[in-house]
Prior knowledge:
The complex is a heterotrimer of chains A (370), B (572) and C (359). With 370 residues, chain A is an alpha+beta fold. In chain A, helix 2 packs across helix 3, helix 2 (104-114) packs parallel to helix 4 (148-160) and helix 3 packs across helix 4. In chain A, 42% of the residues are buried. Chain A has 9 helices and 20 strands. Chain A has 2 domains: 3-240, Rossmann fold (3-Layer(aba) Sandwich), CATH 3.40.50.300; 248-354, CATH 2.40.50.140. Chain B is mainly alpha-helical and 572 residues long. Chain B has helices spanning 6-9, 20-48, 57-64, 66-99, 105-112, 114-117, 120-131, 137-146, 158-183, 187-194, 199-210, 212-228, 231-237, 245-255, 260-288, 312-339, 355-362, 364-398, 403-411, 418-428, 442-467, 470-478, 483-511, 517-520, 528-537, 541-566, and strands at 49-50, 53-54. Chain C is 26% helix and 35% strand. Chain C is built from 9 helices and 21 strands. A 6-stranded mixed beta sheet of chain C has the order 7-8-9-3-10-11, sandwiched between helices. In chain C, strands 2-1-4-5-6 form a 5-stranded antiparallel beta sheet, covered by helices on one side. The longest helix of chain C has 18 residues, at 172-189. Chain C starts with a strand and ends in an 8-residue tail after the last strand. Chains in contact: A-B, A-C, B-C. At the B-C interface, helix 22 and helix 23 of B face strand 6, strand 7 and helix 2 of C.
Amino acid sequence: MADYIVLRNVTKKFNTKTLGDIVAVDNFNINVHEGECFSFLGPSGCGKSTTLRMIAGFEDLTEGEIELCGKLVSSSKKKLYVPPEDRGLGMVFQAFAVWPHMNVYENVAFPLRIKKMNKTDIDKKVMEALKHTSLTGLEKTFPGDLSGGQQQRIALARAIVTNPKVMLLDEPLSNLDPKLRESMRFEIKALQKKFNFTIIFVTHDQSEAMAISDRMMVCDMGKIMQIDTPENLYNKPVNRFVHNFLGESTFINVVVKDNKVYPKGNTNQAIKIAIPSDASNEMVVATRPNEIEISKNDTDGYKTHIESRTFLTDRIEYLVSVGNQLVKVQTPHRIKFDKNEECYIKFVSPMWYPADDEKEAMERAKRQVI
Amino acid sequence: MFSVNNNAMAAIDGKKRFSMDKLLTIVCFFMLFVVVIVPIFMIIFNAFFDKNGFSLNLITEQFADKKNLDAMFNTIKIAIFATIFGTIVGVFYAWLLGRSDIPAKGVMRALFNIPYMFPPFLGAMAWELLLNDRSGYLNRFFMDVLKLEKPPLNINSIWGIVFVEVSYYFPFVFMQVVSALERMDPTLEECARIAGAKQSTVIAKITLPLVKPAISAGALLILISSLAHFGVPSILGFRQEIYTLPTRIYAVIYNSGGSFEGIRQGAALSVMLVGVVAIALFIQNRILSAGNYDIIKGKSMRPTLIKLRAAKLPLLFLSIFTLFIIVIVPLGMIILISFVKAYGLPLVPENFSFINYQKVFANKGTIDSIRNSLILSVSAGIISMFLGTLVAYVVQKIKPKGSAVLEITSMLPYSIPGTVLSIGVILAWSGAIFGITLYNTLWIILVAYIARYLSFSMKTSSASLMQVSSSLEEASRACGASHSESLADITLPLIRPAMVSGFFLIFLPAMREVTTSILLYGPYTRTLGVHIYSLRDAGYIPQAAALAVVAIGLIMLLNVIVTQLTKDRKGV
Amino acid sequence: MANVSFQNLKAQYGKNVIFDNFSLEVKSGEIMCLVGPSGCGKTTLVRSLLGLTKPETGRIAIGDKVLFDAEKRINVPVEKRNIGIVFQDYAVWPHMTVIENVSYPLKKRKVKKEEIQNRAMRALEQVRMTQYANHLPSQLSGGQQQRVAIARALVVGAEVVVMDEPITNLDAKLREEMLIEIRMIQKNLGATILYITHDQQSALELCDRMAVMESDGKLCQVGTDEEIITNPINRFTFEFIGNSNAIPLVVENGNTYLDLDEKIPYEDGKGKDLHNKELLVRLNDVVFDKNSKIIATVTSRIFLGSEYNYFLNLGGKEIRLQQSMLNAKNDGTVDVGEKVGISFINPHFYDKKIIKEAL
């Protein structure tokens, strides 16, 4: 598979009056393959939207270069900047951005009219785009009379009508209600299959990103944290941030002593897990609440009891104590324990990270102010 | 803990006491009836009824008079051209300041708003001094320099009137469009770029159509203001016998010496003017209803500014030149003339003195007029503020049967020309109703001001009340406050900033008002505007200029105070 | 005692009956969550309790104090009911500082000046907002404003506090925090809390007991979270609580079948009368089972992080299955196109849904 969208050492600095230079995007190197669905995932202010806007051509680069379909489109060194209209992209925005003064048909036909295509071709293409976005019959309707989901479909139809090779999606589902959000994921995937374009999908919602992407990039504070497949990112996150961002996490502070692992501050009972060779004295063991096995009689596990229990729609959430720390455990409704009941817990595939890094916490707090 | 007393428990349904809500509603209906309905009714009555009952004679007589028809066509012509040019200028500068990377935006925006505060008839005065066909300073200058035999420009013409009106009315469009452009979701334009459209195509196909509602709202304001405008056409038109309907009405009544017959004739002409305005409103309504939409969705993002590149400097010069023409030139002219010893002398330092200021302030009428204007605008401001807020509260929160009627009634005078309203007020309060005669007193001007400006405060209070969620009042009820306590502690303080700005929206234009008061003033009730107008009319031009400078200074000072006062720290 | 009782209430707007013959008992000192889809009449019910809406008939009382009684023509005005209220849009007065907001109810109840200050500060302490006492609401975040609203509702020591969707406008993280906070405050004060929401998840997290309302204003089940989840009284409650699959059943010759394109024998149904019923089962109660004779084909698999979401084709019907990460790691995943046996744990059997339009 060819590298289709390439970012080389892309850096973007913003100059602000109060805080001086802020590095919004710090030395990004990304290769997106042809036909791939690639997500940019991260909390707000991580640089994902700025990166997308640089690819689209709405922002210039402080440093680095961007290549689209084998053609250089932005380069800070060569002072090259291809304007957005000449990049041949499709793009869908969070706020729909359908033109309220044009009806559905005119919205979708606009990109073709700009290309001065003849009427019959326009009609054919528009009707096909509308068909694939389930908008047939609504040609004469104005966007103001349509629901959010339908408006976003118009935006999709408008984006696919020119048959672009690359589709940029900037949080396209965030303004929709949860049910619709889920079904639109499938629609986007189906359109990709039909029209064969490469997707860059920007979102802050990890489950959305995981459901839709082939690969994704997790970034934070203007830096790339990790690029990998959803499964690998979820199961082998490189650091605590990625672990926490990709799903509910449980972190236990532990000390390693005499080749045994104890919860920090309580050495009565060891946790029976394998110790990595490079573990230092104090570490953090990370796992997911639903990857902890809990049982009444598997004495191999860590013996403890249920501190509290909450019924949720699709699971029961227990808090159990491990040393002086509380650990969240989730089970299906059918596995039921009572409050204070004795139980054994087992960590199936824990990850190890260095102990709490205060410097990082401070840096994050500082950035929050920005 | 539960100290529910028996009295409270006795508040049994069915035997509801006469509630405060009902009282407010009735007060509202009554006040609007007296202030708005009665004068309008009187005009219609006098125009269509005489001693023998219904008759169209009076109206047909007016239509038969060629002078009146000329006036009507002039009015329409001036209004249409002022609207077209004003809209073009307004949209152009709105785009330039709202979307391009032209430098010094903040300063320019502030300056572009000045014409809005500057009384147009003073501008007309200044331009007359510069460009009248006989002795205009600028005309003489051109004739000297270019060796011309005839003055090159003549401000005392239809086109002169259009020019002056455009320079004072284009901010209506400018302000509306600039704020629409700023609130517009930038992704709407970015999408079009992605779709392959060039920047110029985006402006033509996306940006302008999207701000069309703002443009037409501003254009309508220009149209109606111009149709009803008295000051500029009267100053520039009378000498050449160019009349518009408002000035014609004034002339008819003035020439008849204020007799009842003259006023009746004025009433009939008013019906003509109202007809023209109504047609304009109707057409605008048809155009506007084509599409009204919300373009301010989405996250707030700074719109990408369009780089003007090579066009930057020429456009900057053009903007500065425009500002120079519409702000500096007339203002400078008025100031210079106010210092000149006698009208007609060359504008050189030897001829300057403070004599005009001394003369003006030695005149008892000057002090009276300033006092009258202050009394009138303060009391009209306060009364309209409370009445407008009351109407807004009844319409927004109590919503009684007929609240739509209330709203329309209070907005009605907004689209009725001031001249027409004055005639209605004269007809109503010259003894026709219960024998009450207010003619020649300050009261009659006050009543007219209230009717004319009520909609201003009603609009601002209404917008602010709409943002006060009903849960705020409900929360205070649940905290133990009665209905009236909730009103006093929660609702009123929350809309106070809006009420205050409503007050100043009335106070400022009332200070410089001419159109209404010119028909209503009596020997002792001249207003500031009327006094300047009549000083000039009587030929005391430098003195009129001196008083104008004082008036402008006063208005600017008040404006500064307003902006300071309305800078409220507590937002709703 | 501050138990709240609604008896035989009826409310209607014009001809539109919101609820009729509605009775509910909220025990003193409990958190009762009233859940139901939007438009079911929950808000009308709280407005009746507060005195903002007047019901047609019935009786509302707190302890032995009657607030409303249609027969005896009692209707205590809002300001005398002494009920704390927290609205969805916070309704914090923007022109008053935090401390002024919280002091207001005390002022209106003519509490002594020096005492007002103390009590207001104590209420702010409860919600950890003392350092913001002199801030204006516009300087606070949504969560902080909601805390102020809660302090204001609690400051007079009302024994009953109503919360109408108080966390709906907050983001997910903050919602979680606020729920814990509400729980803590309730523990400290022992007030009775009536909590209104359309969000089952937060209701389950917070409540001592919950009351489920159907969209037509009928109260369909009242009970603890455990009761509601393990023993949903009807199909509405079951489906309202979470996603599920519904499979029609048919009995022929004494054997129960899944009534799909082909009839698949359902052996677990033996000995039950399941004719024309439907089998409802939660997504994570459908499990892969090599020994099962119910065979489905995997049509797609989506990785969602904490679980895999499978779409299966079972006799022409789409069945959803959720496999937790734990099971996926222990038992492995199933690929698209594979045929697998599935079985249903904890199935519920309800009458077939009658589609109203068809009638």
